[in-house]
Amino acid sequence: MHENLSQPPKPEIDMFEPWKTFCSRFIFRWVEYDHSTSAAAIAFYVIFSLAPILVFSVTVAGEILESEPEARQAAIKFLNNAIGETSTSPEAAFKQALETIDHTDAKPEAEMAPAEPPPAENEAPENRSYGEEIVDQIKLTAFRKTGFLQSSFLILVALWSASATFMQLRNALNRIYGFTADGLRGSLIAVALGRLRATLFSIGVGLLLALATLLSTWSHALWEFLPIGRYITPEMQDFTTVQVISWITVVIVFYCMLRFLPMERPPGREVFAGAIIATIMFQIGKYLINMLAEGNTVAAAYVTSRVLVITVMWIFLSAHVLLFAAEVGHMLYSPIDSPFDKYRKPAGE
């Protein structure tokens, strides 16, 4: 008769146990800090932030290129790559739905019906990209009709209001990294410096978007200069340029948000890990959403507000991605939550 001997734990179980703890701790922290509510607040404040940042970036790019239409076209291309190409108007979506419903009941006489006249030149097309609809709403002439001092004051006020988005993101990141202010004086200083930093960050994002617009415009001259450019089709050149600019811009924006928005500087390895994770998730999610939600019928259901709705939806999802990546990047190197032995300290220490 064999004795009942205690079996040693399986190595597979020991190997995955830290990751189980890591996942459970992640879910607990996500619920405790209510990151979904923070993402919703960030998306709401984008309503006040989007126009000032786009006005600033297109204005800077237009002044450098000495051509506002060229800057607008480059901004449209950049936004289309980030949000989606097609924005079906509600009239077109309704017409398409009627055609689908009446397809089985179509009569032969319908084929003999006269064709509809072409739309007038000043009539808006049925299918327009979101980039076109967003940029076309920017009225730069409103700033140019006023004097220099008044325009400067209006731009500063607009950028100050744009900082509300980054203030919400700053508060969420402070909770993730565990940064708090000490006392009333420290809280007041933290709020003042936080608002100033968020305003400067709004200016920085506008300048970065302007730079991305300029690089997209100047890329054609760069391809002509490169020896390999003659062997690549113009379509592939545009695709490569857009992808490179998109990835680099997203990495820089995410890294700067995680590094400079919080009250203190988080460790560089946490910031770098979070920025890389956020960029990969953002790019993959962008293509999946564009592929699964072709036509963006959800936004079309809101009729004239569809551009604002789809933009807020994208920012809401992007904020989730960034907060998710920041939380993961922080926990990977945390002495309490890290799944790696070399970063995790024993419970007694």
UniProtKB/TrEMBL annotation:
Q: Which UniProt keywords apply?
A: Cell membrane, Membrane, Transmembrane, Transmembrane helix
- Entry GO terms, CC: plasma membrane
Where located?
Answer: Cell membrane
InterPro entries the UniProt entry points to: Virul_fac_BrkB
Q: Which Pfam families match?
A: Virul_fac_BrkB (PF03631)
- Per its UniProt entry, which superkingdom is the organism in? Bacteria
Q: How does it sit in the membrane?
A: Multi-pass membrane protein
Q: Please give the start and end residues of each transmembrane region.
A: 39-62, 148-169, 200-219, 239-258, 270-289, 301-326
The main location is membrane
Q: Where is this region: Disordered?
A: 108-128
- Protein name, as recorded: YihY/virulence factor BrkB family protein
